[in-house]
From TrEMBL, chain A:
GO terms for molecular function: tryptophan synthase activity. It is an enzyme of class 4 (lyase). PROSITE patterns: TRP_SYNTHASE_BETA (PS00168). The modification N6-(pyridoxal phosphate)lysine is found at residue 108. It comes from Acrocarpospora corrugata. The lineage of its organism: Bacteria, Bacillati, Actinomycetota, Actinomycetes, Streptosporangiales. This is Tryptophan synthase beta chain.
From TrEMBL, chain B:
The active site is at residues 48, 59. Belongs to the TrpA family. Keywords: Amino-acid biosynthesis, Aromatic amino acid biosynthesis, Lyase, Tryptophan biosynthesis. Gene3D superfamilies: Aldolase class I. Its EC number is 4.2.1.20. It holds the Pfam family Trp_syntA. The alpha subunit is responsible for the aldol cleavage of indoleglycerol phosphate to indole and glyceraldehyde 3-phosphate. It comes from Acrocarpospora corrugata. HAMAP family: Trp_synth_alpha (MF_00131). This is Tryptophan synthase alpha chain. Pathway: Amino-acid biosynthesis; L-tryptophan biosynthesis; L-tryptophan from chorismate: step 5/5. It catalyses: (1S,2R)-1-C-(indol-3-yl)glycerol 3-phosphate + L-serine = D-glyceraldehyde 3-phosphate + L-tryptophan + H2O.
Length: 405, 257
């Protein structure tokens, strides 16, 4: 599989694409995207984190500690569950990679345990984090408690209202939640505020970014910490499927970390990679190249260059940008990015709950919604196999769902 | 005026007094250009114009508020440049904005537009040495002096490169933090000023948190001058008129001289 020079419908060779998800080097560039657009004050910290990560990532002891925690603490490997009834209904074979079953209820824990170990290795006392849905905030609070670090989480006031349960969880876990009252009061503003705070506390604080965004090395480092999703799923598919590789690999995209980790396991196969964004936050579809939060990528912005607010039912997808590597994968045609609307998402959430007994997060339900639509329209041919990363569980969304029903 | 920002500032420094560069967010009030005139008349050596951006990563609450207000009032880069082109001030004007506005079409087009409107300097705080190459080339080609920031956390090797590649002046960030008014001058500021002065003959100006005439005077003693922003914007947001802002700049001027 891996080495053949397959040229698929998306018109790019497997070999070239495999290079696309490798080490972006010292400049942190993914093609023309990525980079390190931060104030001079933060440059030394970025260099320090890059050096620490490179060293840790090639240190068997660090890797061993991480693997152990992912296994005995976070509950990895997560299962690959056949969606029996939904598959029958749609005429396809659908597998769900169950990140909802990881500790704290989403894939965010994979990245956070990695970064928390790194922060500890670097001698930092506090982790700073931004959060939208609260899942990354909860994961950060959790890992901080586990390793005896402090956690400060920046969260938009609007998200605090709609993700109340996660705010309570963070409080119980001993984290400080700082409401962000500027701009749209959602994830983008929480990122700004976390960056501002980081500049003034860089000596003792580590900024634990929650997705494949931010200045180099974050987009690459977070993808590497999330790669475990794709590698496990690849091995599980190899064991389950007659041909070993699914026809489609699908994941939702906010900043794009669960998708990046998933794609990393399949980028050198014949699988079609599909990222699904919220229609109201679809930077890959409606964005233009720009610079936000320290990296160059596709960004939702008005004709004058002011970044616009993203809107969707899923707080975790309300981000006006997309990780730089996704922008590169899109341009090169190796991955495709689709959008679904709020209505389809709520229906998909209900559908999965009622056919499979799995209550998925609103974010993850975007991926489900696209598969349902594409299977029904015939875009996914009958009989195809689909591997979908179910990034998180929906308990946090119960209050929102109640209002939408 | 055909001299560059740097030539102008060096000549002014040659008269033996510290340099003073006050700031205003373009578009923050309908009469913001009156503020520019008031600054110039009050003895500013150059004026920094903030081009408001939706996500000002390095700005504290005051300049965030000024930016939000300007954007809400419909301020655009093109609109600012049109107004600037009509200004008649006898000191250089310097644009300050974030990368996203600079890369909209191309850095070359942006710099050409600055020159066409008479602006002579540019500061882009989220474009560090690593990312500045193309922009620096474009600025040089258009005769715009691209001012680079130096921070207390910068290594000596970086400070050297910053002083070599900066044009106009070197912007010495007084503290690890965002813009905004502060009570004290940190140790690290004076150390940074000393180090930069030892590395370059280019003017070195302190900025971030210069909050009173006395502070301005004290800092100016460690370099060639100061940029004053948030404290002026706070007064403006609280209702101060251009004339009052001019008087405040004049009081800083007196403290410096
Ligand atoms: C369950 C879940 N899925 C997905 C996301 C989106 O993030 P990413 O695109 O980085 O995977 C979030 C973010 O909060 C989330 O909580």
């Amino acid at each position: 599989m891996g080495e053949m020079s397959w040229s698929g419908r998306q018109g790019v060779t497997v070999r070239a694409a495999a290079r696309a998800m490798s080490d972006p080097g010292a400049t942190g560039r993914f093609g023309t995207y990525g980079g390190r657009y931060v104030p001079e004050s933060l440059i030394p910290a970025c260099h320090e984190i890059e050096a620490a990560f490179r060293e840790a990532w090639s240190d068997p002891e660090f890797r061993g500690r991480l693997d152990t925690l992912l296994t005995v603490y976070a509950g990895r490997p997560t299962p690959l569950t056949p969606a029996w009834r939904l598959s029958r209904e749609l005429g396809i074979t659908l597998f769900l990679k169950r990140e909802d079953l990881a500790h704290t209820g989403s894939h965010k824990i994979n990245n956070v345990i990695g970064q928390a170990l790194l922060a500890q290795r670097m001698g930092k006392e506090r982790m700073l984090a931004e959060t939208g849905a609260g899942q990354h905030g909860v994961a950060t609070a959790t890992a901080a408690a586990l390793l005896g670090l402090k956690a400060t989480v920046f969260m938009g006031e609007r998200d605090i209202e709609r993700q109340e349960l996660n705010v309570l969880r963070m409080n119980v876990l001993g984290a400080e939640v700082v409401p962000v009252t500027t701009g749209s009061r959602t994830l983008k503003d929480a990122c700004n505020e976390a960056m501002r705070h980081w500049v003034s506390s860089v000596d003792d604080s580590y900024y634990c970014i929650g997705s494949v965004m931010g200045p180099h090395p974050y987009p690459w480092m977070v993808r590497e910490f999330q790669r475990v999703i794709g590698e496990e799923a690849r091995a599980q598919c190899a064991a389950e499927l007659p041909v070993g590789v699914p026809d489609y690999v699908v994941a939702c995209v906010g900043g794009g970390s669960n998708a990046a980790g998933t794609f990393a396991g399949f980028v050198d196969t014949t699988a079609r990679l599909i990222g699904v964004e919220a229609e109201g936050g679809a930077a890959a579809t409606f964005g233009r190249a720009g610079v936000l939060h320290g990296f160059r990528s596709l960004v939702l912005q008005d004709e004058h260059g002011q970044v616009t607010e993203a809107h969707s039912v899923a707080a975790g997808l309300d981000y006006p940008g997309i990780g730089p590597e996704h922008a590169q994968l899109r341009d090169g045609g190796r991955a495709r990015y689709e959008t679904v609307n709020d209505e389809e998402v709520v229906q998909a959430l209900l559908c999965l709950a009622r056919t499979e007994g799995i209550l998925a997060a609103l974010e993850s339900s975007h991926a489900v919604a696209w598969v349902i639509r594409a299977a029904k329209s015939g875009e996914i041919a009958p009989g195809s196999t689909v591997m979908l990363t179910l990034s998180g569980r929906g308990d946090k969304d119960i209050a929102s769902i109640k209002e939408l029903l | 005026m055909t001299e560059s920002l740097e030539e102008f500032l060096i000549a002014r420094r040659g008269t033996g007094r510290p340099l003073l560069v006050p700031y205003v967010t373009a578009g923050v009030t309908p009469g913001w250009t009156d503020v520019v005139h008031a600054y110039a008349e009050a003895g500013a050596d150059a004026v920094e114009l903030g081009f408001p951006f939706s996500d000002p990563m390095l700005d504290g609450v005051t300049i965030q508020e000024a930016s939000d207000r300007a954007i809400a009032a419909g301020t655009t880069v093109r609109g600012i440049l049109e107004e600037v082109a009509t200004l008649d001030v006898d000191v250089p004007l310097i644009a300050m904005t974030y990368s996203n506005l600079v890369v909209q079409r191309s850095t070359a087009e942006f710099c050409a537009a600055l020159t066409a409107s008479g602006l002579r300097g540019l500061i882009v705080p989220d474009s560090p040495l690593e990312e500045v190459g193309e922009l620096a080339d474009a600025a040089a080609a258009e005769g715009v002096d691209l001012v680079l920031l130096a921070a207390p956390s910068s290594s000596r090797a970086r400070l050297r490169e910053i002083t070599e590649r900066s044009r106009g002046f070197v912007y010495a960030v007084t503290r690890m933090g965002t813009t905004g008014e502060r009570g004290e001058i940190p140790e690290e500021a004076t150390r940074l000023g000393r180090e930069l002065k030892g590395l370059t003959d280019r003017p070195v100006l302190f900025g971030f948190g210069v909050s009173s005439p006395a502070q301005a005077a004290e800092l100016a003693g460690h370099a060639d001058g100061v940029v004053v922003a948030s404290t002026l914007m706070r007064k403006l947001l609280d209702g101060a008129r251009p004339r009052e802002l001019g008087e405040y700049v004049a009081s800083i001027r007196r403290a410096l001289d």
